[in-house]
Amino acid sequence: MDTRDIQALTAVKLYYGEGLTQSQVATELGVSRPTVSKLLNLGRERGYVRIEIHDPREEASETATQMRDRYQLNDVRLAQPARAGNAVLLRELGRVGAELLDELVVDGTLLGVSWGKTMYSVSTQLKSKDVSGVEIVQLKGGMSHSDKSTNDIRTIGGFCHAFHAYARTLPLPVIFDSVETKRIVEQDRFIASVLALGRTVDIAVFTVGAVDHDSLALNLGQLSTTEKDLLVERAVGDACSRFYRADGGIALPEVDARTVGISLSDLRRIPTRVLVAGGAHKAAAIDVALRTNLATHLVIDDATAERLLALDSPAAPAAPASPGSPGSPDSSTPLTATE
């Protein structure tokens, strides 16, 4: 440790530990106030000090209670971004999502993980937890055939590092060129075992995406131009790369048939399902996901939660149905309040 690091440690202890002002710290160290500011920044970068902010609104607020009641959820956590901007929103959703997972994961947990920008944010903000026997299961393929990265491996790595876990990955594209190729690959013993394990996890953590021409899920080099246009026209969102309409039905069955990963019906059977998503552009996707029972736990920003609460009262959540059966959210049949 060099002299600069030692100075940074001393500055951190005086400023954060003893409550001195930066001017007082400067006097103690015999340096200028700007130098103290730089030393404090260095201390934060080195990890000599960690700042934790506990916002009681994240766990206990009228908005969270109303969201729990409206969508019949077990738990709702609200991210409270201090300022506007997608980067800030992603960071806060990831932080609050990481805190919730820290509470849920225990010894022996089988944890299913999806990918996406929100999931990557969660993975980077998880703190190490002293648990054993945890396994992380990738819920869908993540290889890209374009210059867009899914960050699937880095996301899985973040979860494994935090929970000292073993990874079960799917080194595959999420959407294949043909149903025939997908079926052949799924017959591989290793791939089949990971897919089967994904259907039996204790906890699934995932996000939902809005569907437009800029969506990551549409730009991995796995869809034709016609398919992209149809998905933008028909789909309101996707969960685990399963594109769904506003009524909850599958938006494009021919694409869904080529998709590798957990189905929406299998997702609903997971005991604990943590949805981490936010932003006005995802409001419709989140609303449909919640109305069709995709989540038991929700992490969302307060502004989007308020937007959802302002919508007309939702229909009763659909009861799980077998895949492809009439009324099943995995089929092309729309959902109704009685289904």
TrEMBL record:
Alphabetized SUPFAM superfamilies for the sequence: Homeodomain-like (SSF46689), NagB/RpiA/CoA transferase-like (SSF100950)
Highest taxon in the source lineage: Bacteria
Compositionally biased residues, Low complexity: 314-332
InterPro entries linked to this entry: Cro/C1-type_HTH, Homeodomain-like_sf, HTH_MarR-typ, NagB/RpiA_transferase-like, SorC_transcr_regulators, Sugar-bd_dom_put, WH-like_DNA-bd_sf
An example Gene Ontology molecular-function term: DNA binding
Chain intervals for the UniProt region annotation (Disordered): 314-339
Keywords: DNA-binding, Transcription, Transcription regulation
Domain HTH cro/C1-type: start-end pairs: 19-41
Family statement: Belongs to the SorC transcriptional regulatory family.
Stated name of the protein: Sugar-binding transcriptional regulator
Species of origin: Corynebacterium amycolatum
Organism taxonomic ancestry: Bacteria, Bacillati, Actinomycetota, Actinomycetes, Mycobacteriales
